[in-house]
Design goal:
The complex is a heterodimer of chains A (about 500) and B (about 500). Chain A is mainly alpha-helical and about 500 residues long. Chain A is built from 20 helices and three strands. Chain B has a domain of about 210 residues. Chain B has 20 helices and two strands. The longest helix of chain B has about 30 residues. Classes of the chains: A mainly alpha (about 500), B mainly alpha (about 500). The interface between A and B is medium-sized, with 29 and 34 residues.
Chain lengths: ~500, ~500
Amino acid sequence: MNEMIISSLPMIAVLLPLFGSIPVLYAEKYVSEQFRNALAVIIAAITFLLTMMMIPPIMSGYILEYVLISAETIPVGVAFMADHLGLIMAVFTSFAWMLATIYSIGYMDHEHAKNRYYSFLILTLGATMGIVLTKNLFALYIFFEMMGITSYVLVIHEETPEAMKAGNKYLFFCIGFGLFLLLAILVTYIIAGTLDLGQVGMLPHAGASKLLYTIIFWAFIAGFGAKAGLIPMHVWLPEAHPIAPSPASALLSGVMIETGVYGIIRVIYNVFGTALISELGVHTILAIIAGISIVGGSAVAISQKEIKRMLAYSSISQMGYPILGAALLTSSGLTGAIFHLFNHAFMKGALFLVAGAIIHQTGIRNIDDFKGMGKKMPLTMLVFTIAAFSMIGVPPLNGFMSKWILCIGALEAGSAVLMSFMAVLLLSSLMNAVYYMPIIIRAFLGGHEGIGKAKNVDPGMSMLIPLLLLALGCILFGVFAILPLSIITPAVNTLFGV
Amino acid sequence: MNLSSHLPILIVVIPLIAAFMNPLIGWRQRKFCNPLAVIAVSASFCIALLIARTVITTGRISYHMGGWAPPWGIELAVDHLSAFMCVTITFVSLLAIVYSKNYVEKELAEEKMVPYYTLLLLLIVAMLGIVVTGDMFNLYIIVEMLSLAAYALVAMSEEKRAYVAAYKYLLLGFTGAIFILLGTAYLYIITGTLNMADLSVRIQPWYGSWVVFVALALLMVGFGIKTALFPLHTWLPDAHSIAPSSISAVLSGLVIKTGAYCIIRTLFTVFQPRFVIEVMPVTSALSWIAAIAILVGSLFAISQTDLKWMLAYSSVAHIGFIVLGVGLATGYGTTGGILHIFNHSMAKGCLFLCAGAIIYKTGIRNIYDLAGLGDKMPVTMAAFTIAAFSMVGIPPTAGFISKFYLGLGALEQGTWAGWVFAGVILLGSLLTAVFYIRVVNNVYFGERKRREEIEKDEAPLGMLIPIVILAGGCLIFGIFPKIPLALAEPAARLLLGI
């Protein structure tokens, strides 16, 4: 077991953006627009730095903890904790957020209601950091709901009737399925008497009937799975993610849905524990549902013509991988799952930001019109190509590494049903290729007719640098997979109680 | 005897004297009515805080009127629950009176100002009297006094509809009073005493008798009408929506809660928890009725287009939450019910005051016409949003804490009925979300409001400050729930004898 030290770092990393959103809201009114943008970027950057500062103590085997409201008088308290799993989530969350905020400066230039946008962007960062840096399920639920509601404002930013409709669906999925989560948490508390995420397997074996445990498990999965876009609770996702401004889409698809998977991992390993889960046998069903998500999401993505909708369906498929990995109950499977969460933030973040750059510079949303895009926006399309290749799983990019580990995890699982998921993983990679490759081919090889007048319309620096950094991440963490794995492996060991 | 031992009587007498001085002063100078009421209720509020402190440190206070010892003399009995109610009542009504100054000047005819303050003070006196008295017959008298003041206040608006609503209220209210009187009489016939503490001892040999059953049933119906428990709620939407908004806030926030208080008193002080839970399962019957109230009230609220009607129906649902919590008769459940009295009175008080401010400034009552008010009245609408979130039970507002406790209480029962109640509580909050979020959405987002530039135009400070304090309370007591729980939790434990 890891040693615990008291440190306020996790708490500051959550509260800074939460409260920082207030000055961001008023910065333009009292100072200037540039100051507001700078302030938003600085808050996101400091949050990222704070998470980086947590790496050294955690790597040397400590868990950072800070109790804000103790659980003495009210049944559950609010405490912050950074362990290995929380840390890896926090690192890519704050990194992607920082880049998206920088990107927003260029992208949101001519948009309306920018004060509201930046303020809620930072507020949502605080809520998301809260989800991954909290010590108990109670606080996790609070931040989870908070994230749903604050990100709603990002989803409906355009305020068109379509945006309002998609936003409504998003909000009611958040609140409605959030209630399943609340129910599950209440029952867990009644049975276990604790909601502390610091321990492995908080529900006792003899605490309740098998049936009750199964119900709790599915209530948890409903609550977290709806956020992760798990089929059949994905209905809101393809509508809400594309309609948001692109940097917000990148965060919704790249980071926020992953908190749902994070929740599922916490439920399987911290709330139930591997022994109880395998006794209940629910993990096989969860793996099958995840498999359906993987194939189903990809299948629908193939038929999409609008780039952001296609990416949203791809997210449904991509979130199936880590859920599958977590449900395998093998250490390689879980390693692959967490690694894939890490990678997906880079890949999908890059892809959505590219889509945003294309929409911003040319107004093109339909992938049939992408002909010659490689000539018009060479750097942007290069980033797209790298991220898409990573999605497909081309070595040595990071997407390949996590899929590879997932495949090993599936083989390790032992049972025939779970081993067959290797085929699903391979099939899905093929399907990814089917919908990403035509875009790349069309962009670079198609559309020679307009070559004469095509001039370079790559976006400005504030949009280009985040794109390049994310693409660089895709390559870097593929070649040096050891970097994230050095945090993920201890996380997995802790969750397996090794 | 020093002054501090007279606190229970002072809290009632000070506003009572003010109520009688009011016509005298108003006869000379109308503008002094408001300061007089503010001073009197502020004094009561301070006394309420002192009482709360005394009760927490030394326990139940028993005050003998005129030095006559009970059961012959009249006893004022202030325990944790009474102290909790005292603080709630004086806090919200003080803010309502402060708010009244500007509101009444515009909304009511000038000659009605004096009766308005006189009646409002009498209403507050009656509410305080109900919660401090330890005598059944006193309780009946004061409930009647409360109702009479409330009828007159409902009829205060000039509209014809107000008279109809007040008349409807009066008819049902008197029916309820007859039930209460009969029930009290039955108890007196068999025991020969009216003092609650004495009654609870003397009634025990009669527990098998039909007289007791009938008496309890009559009291429940009578108080059920006063508290507008479904299906006895029909008077509430008319009365609460037509009354001046400051009065609506007091009626919905406090007056119906005194009915709930009477139910709690009757169930757990006059009768024993053992009797009402096991021998004659009134509590579980109440829980089922309350569960229906939650669903029906919310569904009715969804179908309303008038803001104040919507708020009124929402009160029907939330009385359901309170009674359900009380009826659960578990530690968490009853604590949650009592806590919800406080949380709901703050939130609903704030919402009605906001509705009043909207009507004051714009005259709008239809929720679909509210578009753009987020820019026009930013402070009011921000407060409205926080209070609405508290009603839905979205963390970290106060409403979430009571919802959490109610959910825990339902599951603590450990029966299948408990699961149903937990489901109803969660479903109820989802339904609440439907109609409150619709309003918030209309106010802030949507294309309609963007067409025109909107000038900021807030209600005067005298109205804004109470609104902001109540909304702040919804947040602060959500983040620091220990403060109200310090009274609510021991109150529930003492009542249930656990």
